[in-house]
Specification:
This protein is α/β, with parallel strands linked by helices and about 425 residues long. The protein has a single domain, classed as Thiolase/Chalcone synthase (Peroxisomal Thiolase, Chain A, domain 1), CATH 3.40.47. Helices cover about 40% and strands about 20% of the residues. The chain contains 15 helices and eleven strands. The protein has helices at about 25-40, 55-60, 65-70, 90-100, 120-130, 140-150, 165-185, 185-200, 215-220, 250-255, 280-290, 310-320, 325-330, 350, 355-370; strands at about 1-10, 45-50, 80-85, 110-115, 225, 230, 240-245, 260-270, 300-305, 385-395, 400-410. Strand 5 (about 225) and strand 6 form a beta hairpin. It is globular. The chain starts with a strand and ends with a strand.
């Protein structure tokens, strides 16, 4: 969908373990940072899209999740739209807010993604992920893993899935094994991605993990499920990120300096397509390329959904950063590192920045906005002008249940 909305301000709290902070306080802090960045007062907000995935399971806050956050800040009256779309919750909120601003319904909209996943009862944290599949399927997540194992030509083993690890690690492992057989990727390639993102994350003061890892250290780390070791898997975390979206008219009134425009954003849900076929991520990417008139060769940097290291490698291909099967060569060339042709996950990605699921989509927009405005510090991509955000959520059949892809462009107001 073609958009014409601008980002006036962004804010984000460091991701990590925040057991001493409430969900409301984390979200409120991120929102206030975004308002300060935009130079706006909370009284100027006209609508809010609030993205959260797991509060009902983890904290017990079912329903009115956004309203309780905003009322805690003294914000009321305005429309509050609560958005839940698994790991794509706040990227969905962002897409919907941008659509409404582009359509002329609002001049100033708030988007916030927020999540607390750490809990004394680890089963609650894992339960948040176990519900991101069709639970009315008699076998639930197990059936998803079974279908992927069949597609990969691998034996089906589900012991420990959902109890000792997130079921999604089993899902990603089966996807990885299929890619390994089809295109020759290896555990070493996945370790290269984890090591790359650890370097990027070490430069991000808001990242959950700041330690730089070598490929050898990643490979030697604790095994989760073959071929994944611990650093190849995104961690649970707590955090919040917020974005202020404004119309072109309001952008002019505010005199935005170094403005970032949302050129296109697509929300796509899964369907039963034949294998091989266009995936959910590929369809969303194609839609934004076509809507914006921007091609993959014009991208300066990308924040993509590396919930596992193999996920990043596969995304290179379906986002058209390279041809199918060429992801390993793109990686080996150094193109996706800082200083390379198309740096990917300069924030550290989900692997190192962290993955508080409801907050991850908004955090990608924060990173890209700061990159395009030259505010990313030691991890700055020189001359960054166009950025892509890709965020997936849930699983149905052999693919994501929902995916959002957005394109941001730094350009002067005409």
């Amino acid at each position: 969908m073609k958009m014409n909305a601008y980002i006036a301000g962004v804010g984000m709290v460091p991701f990590g373990k925040h057991q001493d902070k409430t969900l409301k306080s984390l979200a409120g802090q991120a929102i206030q940072l975004a308002l300060n960045d935009a130079g706006l007062d909370k009284s100027q907000l006209q609508a809010a899209w609030m993205g959260n995935a797991a509060a009902g399971v983890v904290t017990g806050q079912e329903m009115i999740r956004g309203e309780v956050v905003l009322r805690g800040m003294g914000i009321g009256k305005i429309p509050v739209i609560n958005v839940e779309n698994a790991c794509a919750s706040s990227s969905t909120a962002f897409q919907q807010a941008c659509a409404m601003v582009s359509a002329g319904y609002y001049d100033i909209a708030l988007v916030c993604g927020y999540e607390k996943l750490f809990h004394e009862d680890k089963a609650r944290s894992l339960g948040a992920f176990s519900s991101a599949v069709d639970v009315e399927d008699p076998d639930g997540a197990v059936n998803v893993i079974k279908k992927l194992a069949e597609a990969a030509g691998e034996p089906f083993v589900a012991e420990g899935a959902g109890s000792t690890r997130s079921v999604f690690m089993d899902i990603y492992a089966m996807m990885a094994k299929k890619h390994m057989k089809q295109y020759g990727s290896t555990a070493e390639h996945f370790a290269m991605i984890a090591a790359k993102n650890s370097l990027h994350g070490s430069l991000n003061p808001r990242a959950q993990f700041r330690e730089v890892l070598t490929v050898e250290q990643v490979l030697a780390a604790r095994a989760i499920i073959d071929p994944l070791t611990l650093p190849m898997c995104s961690p649970i975390g707590d955090g919040a990120a917020a974005v202020i979206v404004v119309s072109e008219r309001k952008a002019r009134q505010l005199g935005l300096r170094n403005p970032v425009r949302v050129a296109a954003s697509a929300l796509v849900s899964g369907w039963d397509f034949e294998q091989p076929g266009e995936s959910v991520g590929a369809l969303a990417a194609r839609q934004v390329y076509e809507a914006s008139g921007i091609g993959p060769g014009e991208l300066s940097c990308v924040e993509l959904h590396d919930a596992s290291a193999p996920s990043e490698l596969m995304a290179y291909e379906y986002l058209d950063l390279c041809q199918p099967g060429e992801g390993i060569h793109l990686l080996e060339s150094g193109a996706t590192r800082l200083g390379g042709r198309i740096p990917v996950n300069t924030s550290g990605g989900l692997l190192r920045k962290g993955h508080p699921i409801g907050a991850s989509g908004c955090a990608q927009i924060v990173e890209l906005t700061e990159q395009l405005q030259g505010r990313a510090g030691d991890r700055q991509v020189q001359g960054a002008r166009i950025g892509m955000a890709h965020n997936g959520g849930g699983a149905i059949g052999l693919d994501a249940a929902a995916t959002v892809v957005s394109l941001l462009v730094r350009e002067e107001l005409k």
